[in-house]
Write a structure and sequence with these properties.
This protein has eleven helices and ten strands. It is of the alpha/beta class.
Amino acid sequence: MSDLLNTPNTDIQTHTEAGVTTITLNRVSRKNSITAGMYAAMADALVTAAADASVRVVVFQGHETIFSAGNDIGDFLNASPSTQDAPVFRFLHGLSDFPKPVIASVCGPAVGIGTTMLFHCDLVYAGDNAAFSMPFVNLGLCPEAASSLLVPQMMGYHRAAEALLLGEPFMVEAALEVGLVNRIVPPAQANALAQAQARKLAAKPLTSLIETKRLMKSGQAARVTAQIKEEAVSFGRMLSEPAAREAFTAFMEKRKPDFSKV
């Protein structure tokens, strides 16, 4: 065991063993909604895993009933990211640039960043209860995490337009069909499958894993980085515009937003 940090009652748990670092979203009572502190913890975990020669694979996982409801709205409004060194952008760049294999185990809803982060993972295993959504337009915002580039590439333009413009959930079978998910299993088996696949990878030569991933991604690595930055500029501007203000006010007041005047 190269490292073990598994403190109970923390929102992000990081456990490293036998060449595999597992990052667990552990805020189930709040549907694993992600705060700035959680982004910072995950970004730090990725930096540590990248630098540790004994780590060969990273696994992201949530709970059998929920992967992530996306950003914690209250925390997000109180500490909106304004620069590229904000925790959310540190996490996104750390994930997109991560040199070693990344696996995700997804059960239940994966909303917003809960879905877009998966486009940067190398393998995704899902419970049969998984549902994916990118409701940025419904919040008066635009896509993030380079999803405006990666979603059309993977899903095709028209399916991407349906997912990003309507912002409606799509089920795990559709995710499997377009290649976002590698395999569907019962929710109770998803994390175990991800760990089993991680152990297979951890038994392989690290230099080969890193070089193979680099070669597969090298053709668009710079474009992904640029897209994350361009989206962030638009996202930040739109966050203060009337549509987003109405969307977030409606969310906090538990009512349907009215965009007829924006």
